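Supplementary Text 2. Reproducibility record for the structural model of the 87-residue chain.

All settings were left at their defaults, and a single model was retained for analysis rather than an ensemble. We include the record here because the model underlies the residue-level annotations in Supplementary Table 4.
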Amino acid sequence: MLLIFGNLPNEIWRVLGFLAGRKLDEGAEVLIWVRAVATAIVGCVVMQVLIVPPGALASVPALVRCFRLSSAGLSFIFWSAARCSPA
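Retained model, structure tokens:
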């Protein structure tokens, strides 16, 4: 019962998404925009967890959170530098 009612509805949408996605051009502007929005959402969620941690993470001392934020900032700086450097 669990396989039928839990897996089958999800699997149908995955197969339909796969079939529809085969015909899409990877360089299409719509897909570039969707990828940018998805990346921005993931970045916002990560920063929200770092700045205002939920649940048990909220009990972590402020000094440790400061180290987490500074490491996230340094990671962003290195990522930006690597992405902007000429290849």
